[in-house]
Amino acid sequence: MKLEQYIEELSTLVNVDCGTQTREGVAKVAGIMQQLWQQEGWHAEQIDLGEAVGPGVFVCNKPKASEFDVLLVGHLDTVFPAGTVSERPMSRDENRLYGPGVSDMKSGLLNILWAMRTLAADHKDRLSIAIAMNPDEETGSVHSHQWIGTLAKHARCVLVCEAARADGSLVKARKGMAGYHLTFEGVAAHAGNEPEKGRSAITAFANSVLAINALADTDRGTTLNVGVVEGGSAANVVPDKLRAELDVRFWENDEYDRVSQALQQLCEQGFLEGVQTHLTRVNHKPAMAASEETQLLMRLVELAGQEEGIKVTWQAVGGGSDANHTAALGIPTLDGLGPVGAGFHSPAEWLDIASIEPRIRLLKRVVSML
Ligand SMILES: [Zn+2]
Q: For the chain, percent helix, then strand, then coil, each to nearest 5?
């Protein structure tokens, strides 16, 4: 494998500021990926997903096919704000590459390309292969999950090519998550002259936090985290407004049903007389659990690993990805088919250089065995 060519291609992708909000950067990466695939002779088109986000990219080997043997999924965006690339462009030491999105997940996008580049012609003839790259995974795929879902419904299986975990494990299950905004509306009053006329949004919020935390069930992995709070204006004013953000995580979708119902009930009841509580769900990813069909797909990946001399291990992880959405549609879905990396969403993000070539071989072998 021409590793230096791969690293060169990777640097052209990493050295573009392409946080979800930086639409022109996402569009630039979309353009680079589209061109790379076209050079391989594959059909590649940009998909308009609305004005709020950059374009997606759809690639396939059989433009007339309406059913796919496999849908390979990756995302074009990162979590990093504009300016990150000039602060810390892609760099390397002996064993690792560093830079924004180097393993989450520019290298995943490239591993798909490199695996398909050298896929034997008879498999390319036999299989209908589709690839979807979306522009907004890092903000919950709000504008792209319908598009990916529609493609997934026409696919026999979905392989998401986010990085493998630091120990090399692939991902068989992911927690579901739901994000909420909470607002508290009370009554402002002078804290010295007539405090009795006030209704404190902050006191109501304080009452709410412990009640919300009590909905957790740590044995089942259901957790709630109030992660953002802002409210009040001055110490001598009874505060009439407060907003907070809540993150809910769960392994089981019926656990989420329980929490969601309880949250609604609690907020309807309110936490302090005279203070209104409003609850708005802003995003939601169902939990990804390994169904029976998914377990068959896992056996196939393990077999592919045996043939390539790569030990395949699995992890269930707390973070969500597009795999949550496609698994919830009932399509067998696995994740972590990219190279090995860690430190995602932080300046410490790294990619293990030695894992690039074997993970390309693994992905190619899996596809050829479908
Ligand atoms: Zn990612």
A: 40, 25, 35
For 190-196, the CB contacts below 8 A with 24+ separation are 190/236, 190/237, 190/238, 191/235, 191/236, 191/237, 191/238, 192/236, 195/238
Judge if the upstream peptide bond of residue 369 is cis by omega within 30 degrees of 0: no
Residue where the block lists tokens 């693994």 = 362
Q: What is the pLDDT of residue 283?
A: 87
- Which amino acid is it at 17? D
Where b means 16+ CB within 10 Å and e means fewer, 212-245 reads beebbeeeebbbbebeebebbeeeebbbbebbbe
pLDDT digits (tens, 9 = 90+) for 317-353: 988 889 999 999 999 999 999 999 999 999 999 999 9
Give the residue among 187, 214, 223, 170 at the shortest CA–CA distance from 334: 170
Whether residues 109 and 141 fall in one domain: yes
β-pair partners for 301: none
- Of 192, 184, 234, the residue nearest 212 (C-alpha): 184
Q: What is the CATH number of the domain that holds 219?
A: 3.30.70.360
Q: How do strand 314-317 and strand 170-174 relate by DSSP bridges? A: parallel
Q: Chain-wide mean pLDDT for the chain?
A: 97
Nearest 10 degrees: CA dihedral of 101, 105, 107, 111? -170
Domain count, the chain: 2
Distance from residue 198's CA to the centre of ligand 1 (Å) = 46
Domain that holds residue 184: 176-285
User: In angstroms, what is the span from residue 75 Cα to ligand 1's centroid?
Assistant: 7
| Mean predicted confidence (pLDDT) in 203-214 | 97
Q: How far, in Å, from the CA of 248 to the mean position of ligand 1?
A: 19
Please give the distance, rounded to the nearest whole angstrom, from the Cα atom of residue 104 to the centre of ligand 1.
4
Percent of the chain with pLDDT over 70: 100
